[in-house]
Write a structure and sequence with these properties.
Strand content: 15-25%
Strand order of the largest sheet: 1-2-3
Number of domains: 2
Organism: Collybiopsis luxurians FD-317 M1
Protein name: Unplaced genomic scaffold GYMLUscaffold_98, whole genome shotgun sequence
Structural class: alpha+beta
Number of strands: 3
Helix content: 40-55%
Amino acid sequence: MLQHFNWDCIHMPMEVGGFSYIVQAVKLNILWPEVCSLKALKASLMAKFIYEDIICFVERAHIPLVEAIVKAAGNAIGNWPYLLSPALLAIQITASRVKGFSLYYLLYGVQPVLLFNILEVTWQMLDWDKVCTTAELLATCILQLQ
């Protein structure tokens, strides 16, 4: 999904520690707020907020994606382009330890029902006992989604 935020700059009635402003960015589809306090409304300070709190947040999400694709590919790393779509779906439907829900559930309010959940007993086909990290969980889901 594309990142789309609504922005607001709020002048606070009392300056504290040199901070006079609150800048708020709200992600519209899930109403997720990001905020920071600023001493002045300058483009350079706004850009720093955007980079550190929004862009770098997206960059941190790359780590589990890449690790999961590499683990799922195993020795056939040249097949990584074929694992990209299953990896994205695995990230979207796998519950997060921090959030307690999948991104899919947070966005749509329902758990996804996949065809293999109905037609096959796939739980026993994969080596779930060896799953210890997020990357291993996502890699196992990628293998299941193929």
